[in-house]
Amino acid sequence: RADLALYRAKGEGKDRLAFFEAHLQEALRREMDLLEALREDLVRGDGLWLAYQPIVDLESGEKVALEALLRWRLAPPAEFIPLAERHRLMPELGRWVLRRACGERGRHGLPVHVNVSPVELLDPSYPERVAEALEATGCPPGDLVLEVTETSLIPDERGRDATQTLQALRGLGVRVFLDDFGSGYSSLERLAGLAVDGVKLGQAFTRALGCPPNPESPAARLVAAVLALAQALGLTAVAEGIEDEAALDYLKGLGFPLGQGFLWGRPAPL
Ligand code: C2E
Ligand code: MG
Ligand code: MG
Ligand code: MG
């Protein structure tokens, strides 16, 4: 997009070019400053923490697990996680999250969900990192749920994908859930053969239902079909992004066993 902006600016005269260059330079400087600060905080183990959000049994209303969501003092995850991925800081950051989440599990005693970046999952030694974290913290493997995205499961230019790593992880006794299910590109054929235990329906679907949800809408039919698919494959289904009673009633009525969302609380420190 930046290249395109420059190209267009060139066509529109020198002043515009200077403007775009200054703009790009500023964005680059911010990125480098943030990266440097993130590296320092990670080394010092300061300024980073985990926020937790409950995953709830829709029938009983009980918390069945917590999802750990990384927080940093200087930027939201949507900004600093892609930054860390671009600059090869993600493996280290991910290791910090894993250790911390497994370590804090003793304080709540619930299974903990940890998000895993595609770059971590593509590293064949990732299951060893997980085994180390479990060992070091005494977290039972069955109490760790790794949330992976469909992006991790698409073969890259060299034909590598994470399917073998997923097998190894499940060999450890750890569970694997597919995050933001339905918003990526995994084929149905692929899904049937995947070594996953559950799927999380992306919050875009929940939002698309409307408020109150309209059962006749194409979005509602799609959500019902996705649930049926998960059930047919024997996968646990979690509905994300439940913000109000209307969405809860609707998704519970459809048969979602588990849900998550602002209705029960925003992610917060333990
Ligand atoms: P995600 O794993 O799909 O996490 C759910 C996101 O939805 C969280 O955003 C959460 O705060 C938000 N959310 C929860 N309930 C609701 C709701 O009812 N309504 C709405 N509108 N939003 C809701 P957050 O914490 O900003 O995280 C964004 C993304 O960053 C996560 O999406 C995940 O992909 C990534 N992320 C967060 N922590 C980590 C981490 O430790 N490692 C990796 N690799 N990625 C992480
Ligand atoms: Mg997640
Ligand atoms: Mg999600
Ligand atoms: Mg996600």
From TrEMBL:
Q: Which domain of life is it from?
A: Bacteria
Q: Which residues form the EAL domain?
A: 31-270
Name of protein: EAL domain-containing protein
Positions spanned in the full protein? 589 to 858 of 858
